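Aim 2, interim progress: modelling of the zinc ion-bound target.
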Amino acid sequence: MPLYEFHCQQCGTHFELLRSFGQADSPAQCPGCASSETRRELSRVNAFSGGKSLTDSGHSCASCSGGSCSTCGH
Ligand SMILES: [Zn+2]
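Predicted structure of the complex, ligand included:
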């Protein structure tokens, strides 16, 4: 889930929330004053790198040419 930054218009608290894309624009409650007068700030949606990279997906490495490979074992 991406991390969103919010800013409370009531007390000025700046906070972050992890929420799904579907909830991105729904109101968030300020942890400081419980106001829902908060605004989402467009920010670095923290590089969503989670998960595995394509090169790690399982089979064959760069030096595989069929048969047995001493690098990846395939
Ligand atoms: Zn507040």
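Residues 60 and 74 are 6 Å apart (CA to CA). The two ends are 34 Å apart (CA to CA).
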